[in-house]
Design a protein that fits this description.
The protein is mainly β. The chain contains no helices and eleven strands. Strands 2, 4, 5, 6, 9, 10 and 11 form a seven-stranded mixed β-sheet that branches. The chain has a four-stranded antiparallel β-sheet with strand order 1-3-8-7, with no helix packed on it. Strand 5 (46-52) and strand 6 (57-59) form a beta hairpin. The radius of gyration is 13 Å and the shape is globular. The termini are far apart.
Length: 117
């Protein structure tokens, strides 16, 4: 089992920045992939960004150039630096982890990000 705990959400004005953190514990060997998803009210959960052990990174088109995902050298924590935030970025952001992009069953409880106009 893997436990994921997010932090760093909050309220920010449009154009501002936030940094999300996700700390993993438990079976770290099962976290080859760590990433972030988000879910806005009335919408489906969607991938924001993910990093694969070994260096490969995927970003959703809507965050390219604004958000940066990184993982610490130990591998226990993944970060999401969010710049140039827009009101449409408002959502609950969830940390996700797993052994592969096809099998990532572990989820955090989520952290709210609210961007005001």
């Amino acid at each position: 089992q893997v436990q994921l705990v997010e932090s760093g959400g909050g309220l920010v004005q449009a154009g501002g920045s936030l940094r999300l953190s996700c700390a993993a514990s438990g079976r770290i060997s099962s976290t080859n992939v760590m990433g972030w998803y988000r879910q806005a009210p009335g919408k489906q959960r969607e991938l924001v960004a993910r990093v694969i052990r070994g260096g490969s990174i995927n970003y959703a088109d809507f965050v390219k150039g604004r958000f940066t995902i990184s993982r610490d050298n130990v591998g226990n924590t993944v970060y999401l630096q969010m710049n140039s935030l827009k009101p449409e970025d408002t959502a609950v952001y969830y940390c996700n982890a797993g052994e592969s992009t096809r099998y990532s069953p572990y989820w955090g409880r989520g952290t709210q990000v609210t961007v005001s106009p």
